[in-house]
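[Discussion] Sanity-checking designs against the backbone

I'm trying to build intuition for which residues belong where. Below is a C-alpha cell string of 119 positions. I'd appreciate it if someone posts a full sequence so I can compare it with mine line by line.
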C-alpha cells in the first residue's frame, strides 16, 4: 500500500525550457525512468519526441501530463485503467491539478522576476 504522506510531495517547478530529457523529467516528476517508459505504453496521450538513437525529448505539456498521471495513480489511488479512462474523459475539460501546477509555476517565475527587478 502506498504511504499517502510520501505521495503528496511538492514537485519542483518546471524550468522554462522547450525540451527535457527523460532524466530531467524523472527528477521533475519524481518518477523513475523505467516507470515513464511504461506509462508511454499505457497512456496514448503521452508521446515524447524521439530523436537520434531513440532518445526521448519531452515537452512542457508532456511533463504536465506525467504529473497529472502521477497524481491520479499515487495520490488519488486510480488503477492504470482507471487513470487512462479518467484522462480520456477529461481531455475536453481543464484539470484542476494541472491548473494549480501552472499557477504555482507562474508564481515562482514572477517571484524570480520581482527579485531581479529589486536588485
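Best answer:
Here's mine. Compare freely.
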Amino acid at each position: 500500500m502506498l504511504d499517502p504522506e510520501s505521495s503528496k510531495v511538492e514537485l519542483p517547478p518546471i524550468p522554462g525550457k522547450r525540451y527535457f530529457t527523460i532524466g530531467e523529467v524523472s527528477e521533475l516528476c519524481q518518477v523513475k525512468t523505467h516507470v515513464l517508459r511504461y506509462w508511454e505504453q499505457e497512456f496514448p496521450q503521452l508521446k515524447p519526441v524521439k530523436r537520434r538513437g531513440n532518445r526521448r525529448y519531452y515537452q512542457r505539456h508532456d511533463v504536465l501530463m506525467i504529473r497529472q498521471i502521477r497524481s491520479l495513480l499515487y495520490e488519488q489511488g486510480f488503477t492504470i485503467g482507471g487513470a487512462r479512462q479518467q484522462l480520456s474523459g477529461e481531455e475536453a475539460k481543464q484539470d484542476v491539478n494541472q491548473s494549480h501546477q501552472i499557477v504555482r509555476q507562474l508564481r515562482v517565475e514572477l517571484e524570480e522576476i520581482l527579485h531581479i527587478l529589486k536588485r
